[in-house]
Write a structure and sequence with these properties.
The chain is α+β, with helices and mostly antiparallel strands. It has five helices and eleven strands; from the N terminus they run βββαββαβαββαββαβ. The chain folds into two domains: 129 residues, Impact, N-terminal domain (Ribosomal Protein S5, domain 2); 64 residues, Alpha-Beta Plaits (2-Layer Sandwich). Pfam families: Impact_N (PF01205).
Length: 204
């Protein structure tokens, strides 16, 4: 599944339901620490709001430890969880959403709150600019010195990231690349691949 993250800074979207204002803030947050810092920032921005409810997937979608939400005083399960459900059914990652509510004098009821918070997030996501998250796979190459010319030519892939070259009895190279990069690397070294020790996170 493709994963995308927000590329807009300070994104804001506002809607009104029965005179209650719902202000949605979205931020790119690669870690739970970034998410919590953003939540604190919005709380400080709206100290007099009735509620600052939030949800985040602050990391990759497969890491459930990076998922969290809060109703911030709304009835249990009527705000944070519905917001997180919207994120769960999107393709987004590294994202934190805070919905600030200013009460308008008319109670919405549990069902109305679930709909209001869900729509505050889903409508905001329709307007949000995103960019695709490209996963970089760490790899290690170990090869005889006489293959240096071959490997340097093969490594001339613009998006391939070389982190370290270490010369011992062999040349040890560590780096990162996309799955396509690593497939291209292997293909370009087909004739000497049997002389190379190779490992990446896809094979571990």
């Amino acid at each position: 599944m493709n994963q995308y993250y927000p590329c807009s800074e300070n994104f804001q979207y506002e809607t009104e339901v029965k005179h209650s204002r719902f202000i949605t803030y979205i931020e790119h947050t690669p870690s739970p620490q970034d998410a919590q810092a953003f939540i604190v920032e919005i709380n400080q921005l709206h100290p007099k709001a009735n509620h600052n409810c939030w949800a985040y997937i602050a990391g990759t979608r497969d890491n459930l430890r990076c998922w969290n939400c809060s109703d911030d005083g709304e009835p249990k399960g009527t705000a944070g969880k519905p917001m997180l459900n919207v994120l769960e059914h999107s393709e987004l990652c590294e994202i934190t959403v805070v919905v600030t509510r200013y009460f308008g004098g008319i109670k919405l009821g549990a069902g109305g709150l679930v709909r209001a918070y869900s729509q505050a997030v889903s409508q905001a996501l329709k307007e949000l600019a995103t960019t695709q998250k490209i996963e970089l796979i760490p790899f290690t190459l170990s090869l005889p010195h006489h293959l240096v010319g071959d490997i340097e030519r093969a490594l001339a892939i613009p998006t391939l990231q070389i982190d370290q070259r270490e010369w011992t009895d062999k040349l040890l190279i560590t780096g990162k690349g996309t799955l396509h990069d690593l497939q291209s690397l292997k293909q370009s070294l087909t004739n000497v691949w049997h002389l190379i020790e190779y490992k990446d996170d896809q094979e571990s």
